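Per your request, structure below.
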């Protein structure tokens, strides 16, 4: 099965793009969703994260206080690295297992940190969703899960827009209305089906 890695900076539109592929019946595996599942209450990763970041990241019921985790790793890059060292291998492992269950000509693997985690060989083709950085920030702000400082810091910790575009096989411009994604995605869908059959 052809594996298309969907990546892009924070707030660039990965989820929006993935949803359109889903509407074509294309299976989509999402690294962020897997990371979330792996850190639900009782999962082994939660204990490891508490060991690394301190019991203060746990709530009374044993669940992870995600806001606190965000704050801690924002303030401490070393802790961020340690957290990633726990989570990233688990995410790729789980994705690999889910991949083995799929039966489709191609699939989309949404992996925000595909390049940063040096995993470009995990996929056969790289699709980058792109928009100017000021739009990324504005859209993230609108969604308001992160403060402007957190969003800016996250952007700075990711590879540059130029590097991402350099490594892309395919690029989706998401600087216009969401509807303008429909036609290029329809073309990509046809193209990926063709590729997967050759
Ligand atoms: P993250 O990296 O934070 O997971 P993402 O890359 O998955 O984000 P989306 O969640 O798809 O990005 O988009 C970020 C926000 O921007 C969302 O609120 C989404 O609705 C909005 N958005 C996406 N594309 C557009 C667009 N073309 N025009 C306006 N808003 C958009």
């Amino acid at each position: 099965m052809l594996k298309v890695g969907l990546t892009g900076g924070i707030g660039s539109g990965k989820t929006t793009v993935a949803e359109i592929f889903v509407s074509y019946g294309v299976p989509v595996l999402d690294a962020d969703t897997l990371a979330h599942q792996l850190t639900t209450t009782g999962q082994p990763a939660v204990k490891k994260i508490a060991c690394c970041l301190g019991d203060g990241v746990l709530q009374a019921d044993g669940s992870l206080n995600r806001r606190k985790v965000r704050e801690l790793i924002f303030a401490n890059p070393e802790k961020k690295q340690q957290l990633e060292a726990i989570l990233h291998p688990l995410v790729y492992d789980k994705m690999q297992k889910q991949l083995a269950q799929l039966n489709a000509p191609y699939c989309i693997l949404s992996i925000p940190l595909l390049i940063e985690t040096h995993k470009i060989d995990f996929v056969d083709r790289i699709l980058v969703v792109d928009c100017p950085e000021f739009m990324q920030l504005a859209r993230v702000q609108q969604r308001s899960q992160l403060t402007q400082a957190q969003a800016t810091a996250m952007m700075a910790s990711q590879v540059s827009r130029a590097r991402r575009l350099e490594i892309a096989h395919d690029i989706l411009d998401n600087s216009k209305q969401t509807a303008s994604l429909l036609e290029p995605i329809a073309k990509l869908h046809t193209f990926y089906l063709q590729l997967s059959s050759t």
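The first strand starts at residue 2 and ends at 7.

Regards,
D.
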